[in-house]
Amino acid sequence: MEHARRVQGQSDGRALDGHRLWPGFVISFGYWTTDFLVVQRVLSANSLRSAKMAPVIGAAVKMAVPLIVILPGLIALGLHNADGSMVFHLVPGSVAKATGQHSYDDVLPLMLIRYCGPGLLGLGITALIAGFMSGMAGNISAFSTVWTHDLYGAFINKKASDRHYVAMGRWSTVIGMLVSIATAYLVMNAASIMDYVQALFSFFIAPLFGTVILGMLWKRATRAGGFWGLLCGTVASIGMFVWVRINADGLRYIAISSDARPMAENLYHALWSWLICVGVTVIVSLMTKPIPTAQLSGLVYGVTPLPSDGAATLWQKPAFWAVVVIVVFFILNIVFF
Amino acid sequence: MARAKLSIWFFCGILMLADGVVLLGQGIFEHFGHAPATVLANLQPTLWWAVLLTLFETFYTVRFRPSTHSVD
Fold first, then answer.
1. pLDDT (tens digit per residue) in A221-269
2. So where does this one cross the membrane (chain B) (predicted)?
3. With DSSP H G I counted as helix, E B as strand and the rest as coil, what are the percentages for chain A, rounded to 5?
4. What region does A307 belong to: left with phi over 0, alpha with psi -120 to 50, or beta?
């Protein structure tokens, strides 16, 4: 445990304190409510209760991700030979490229080879590939759906036949795959794929979360408010990204700390862009004409009759399982903080 | 004659049952003097995983077999 704490300390630079938790809230809540990969699974549920349970089950499984991405690394660090030397001499990726040694990214395959014989090794690699493929398949089908249904069908060609839309969906899947392969080449030289993903999250997901949450819960929000809020939030996030690229000193102002590490940058972009989006949405909405309540039925919480999800016992209620997941989440965070 | 609907869980069951059976063969082979050169091979992880997968996925395959379970 002590070793784990030291490792955490090394990677993080310094311990987390209270105000550092809030940026994480924006990105994680944004992920669960606006990332279409998550939302499309809820939309395809066959009942209201299934739709409510889908993200709860997803969140429960997601809590196990650190077991896969962190634990093998910690075990590798803790493995020593009889003479006290370390079993794995892992080095950063840039060093590994020059010297041919194993980098930190190789830890999971190395551990698989160390412990799994023929057969079991195949199963482990199959499981990893299946995980990557299901994520990719979900993203590509989300891309195809959004393009065909929400952009092409809604704006470009409104009166085409179903056959035409199905063909468009198929073609956009192929093109989406080619674009994603090209994007992989684009970020091949990035320090970490995580930085790139978090940057995109802070550009689009964080401000969109502000728009979605206000639109769902606030009757007074207007179309113009949503549009300008989202635009300002996204532009502000991209602006902050460019600012730090041009002048690295900008990070200390964005993250409100001179000790801020590059990984903190995207979390703070997300927080600022969310705040800007919410602020602009509220101000513009209050300055524009409110939408009559009758038109908001089915769209805004509070003016929409909520149907029963059919849960009879406590075990069937999504809210019960959501509370269980939250309690386990807090316990895990307190134990491993 | 109505055709029985195939549940996605039946598909998952037979797929992983096939994995379990293949691993079971490998695990038994390793048990009889062909242990791999991996760390902690004496604990026979392949055999134990194979037993777990086979039992669990046999249950799934039987539970969601087409004649008794509808996808609705």
1. 999 999 999 999 999 999 998 998 888 888 888 887 777 777 778 888 8
2. 7-26
3. 75, 0, 25
4. beta
Express each pLDDT in A83-114 by its tens digit. 888 888 888 877 888 888 888 888 888 999 99
Interchain CB distance below 8 Å, A117 and B49? no
Q: How close B9 comes to chain A (CA, Å)? A: 16
What does the domain layout of chain A look like in residue ranges?
A: 192-292
Residue entry with tokens 């809210």: A319
A134 versus A323: which is more confidently predicted?
A323
What residues are paired with A103 via a beta bridge? A91
**pLDDT of A195-219, one tens digit each?**
778 888 888 889 999 999 999 999 9
For the segment A5-22, the average pLDDT, to the nearest whole number, is 47
Nearest chain A CA: its distance from B50 CA (Å): 9
Buried b (16+ CB within 10 A) or exposed e, A209-243: bbbbbbbeebeebbeebbebbbebbbebbbebbeb
Cα gap A11→A192, rounded to integer Å: 14
Cα–Cα distance measured from residue A10 to residue A224, given in angstroms and rounded to the nearest whole number: 46
CA angle A295, A52, A137 (to 5 degrees): 100
Residue A280 contacts residue A228 (beta carbons within 8 Å): yes
Q: In sequence order, what are the residues at sequence separation of 6 or more whose Cβ sits closer than 8 angstroms to the Cβ of residue A40? A: A138, A141, A142, A145
Q: What is d(CA A254, CA A236) in angstroms, rounded to the nearest whole number?
A: 11
Given an 8 Å threshold on Cβ–Cβ distance, is A123 in contact with B36?
A: no
Chain B partners within 8 Å of A120 (Cβ): 23, 26, 45-46, 49
Instruction: State whether A120 and B39 contact (CB < 8 Å).
Output: no
Average pLDDT in chain A? 85
B19, B45, B50 ranked by CB distance to A116: nearest: B45
